[in-house]
Amino acid sequence: MHDLVIRSRRVVTPEGERPAAVAVRAGRIAAVHPHDAPLDAAEERDLGAVALLPGLVDTHVHVNEPGRTHWEGFATATRAAAAGGVTTIVDMPLNSIPPTVDPAALDAKLAAAAGQCHVDVGFWGGAVPGNLPALRPLHERGVFGFKCFLSPSGVEEFPELAPGELESALAELAAFDGLMIVHAEDPALLAEPAGPGYPDFLRSRPGAAERSAVELLARLAERTGARVHVLHVSSADCLEPLARAQRAGVRITAETCPHYLVLSAEQVPEGGTAFKCCPPIRSADNRDRLWDALADGVLSCVVSDHSPAPEGLKVADFAAAWGGISSLQLGLRAVWTEARRRGYGLPDVARWMSAGPARLAGMRSKGAIAPGRDADLVAFDPDAAETVDPAGLQHRNPVTAYEGLTLRGAVRTTWLHGRPVDLGAAPRGAFLQPGAC
Question: What is the pTM of this model?
């Protein structure tokens, strides 16, 4: 007897999209049967033509709690995740106070998150000047890897690493096969914006800064043997050195984000600082090249870089406004809208937004509809369409660059470990550790 059987004519599995019946027992996928297979279950749901996707895994989320909970917190961030079909997030180590740069700070983060999470949550540690001795203890406590910046982070409590410090940190991580995830912009090629407008801001953070940083990372990854992942690639200038290093066997991977795939610099309105992020949204032509890199596998993940802030920090001056885009709840719909227009299918979206991030974090039980995996599932209506209204967003500060856009698709139900997520009930999300998920 199964606990649950979900039937759909559009089940997205690692082998592709097909009619199937997904059987769930004790929170895991027991089997994937033919669509019309007779099965005994305590509960059965037939989705018809509504697709069944694996729950999304978002490895780039700034929750900000404790310390900046008025920006975002675990309760609101995980509500937004569940509403958007995301069943697993990994929290970034900065923007919270204290940042997660030692075991005591991780304890503070765990205490703040306890009992608040509607989806499963893992944690990144941070690599900052002076905390080299804390990296192995944090790894042993269960962080999924370590984030660093090569340029200023925007918050004084999380400073950037100089190239020599970066190499030392990579050598330390290589000793225990840890993962370094990197905000990759060369500070020598960045400048203060010459004025308050978006063109000024865009010129201040050129694609060459990303490329230079990626070239440095590839050299150091090859020299140390460490695993390196490039965060939020916005510039297509990065793609050639990334591809070259990957072909040479260097352990370097990279991601991009929904806003770089869906939005373009040409769309940014005067004073529209909801669009500000670092690195910046670039041209439509650049966006086309990022899609090509996803198709080629040079970019392996699409994750949100959900980086919210109170509306008061999004002042109309691009030089002064806080940089960050909130899209945790909207990422699936945004990417599907553009992917569909470009001829990609739901299996592509699931590969980029579920399987790829799960693989990056080493989550063997996440990221696919397959026997033995967690029954983290999403009923997604790919043909629905709805205009984005900030009033319908679950994250704490409903500021979004997607306001007013009509996006395709709708999340009808999100299941976590085989049970529907009820945002009105007590949260059921678990804390995750590498090797145990």
Answer: 0.98
